[in-house]
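Project standup — Tuesday

K.O.: blocked on the structure for the chain from last sprint. Re-posting the sequence here as requested.
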Amino acid sequence: SLEAVNRIYEIKGRKHTSPLAICVGDVSDIDRFAVTDHLPHGLLDSLLPGPVTVVLRRGESSALERSLNPGFDSIGVRVPDCNFIRLIARGSGTALALTSANLSGQPS
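H.V.: unblocked you, prediction finished:
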């Protein structure tokens, strides 16, 4: 939601020009948010779930909130290897915005 995205930027002290990545519950969910038809068959399944952020072109009919990463036509997508986080993403029915725990500009 617009409110949730704005709250993340506020809490982090982050500029809206700094993009956020998203997390989805399953590799098969990525198509709802990004264009994958140009990728070699099986590539995403070989990388995800895991500690990888794949940067893809945002789909024209993407289910993402338009306020997420305005001005960017790409989106970083993760399917984490943590079952608990994937369950939360599945339960939400959409993608989760991701960021690190530190304030913007501070060491991780």
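K.O.: great, moving the ticket to review. The domain at 2-98 is CATH 3.90.870.10 (DHBP synthase). Residues 25 and 83 are 9 Å apart (CA to CA).
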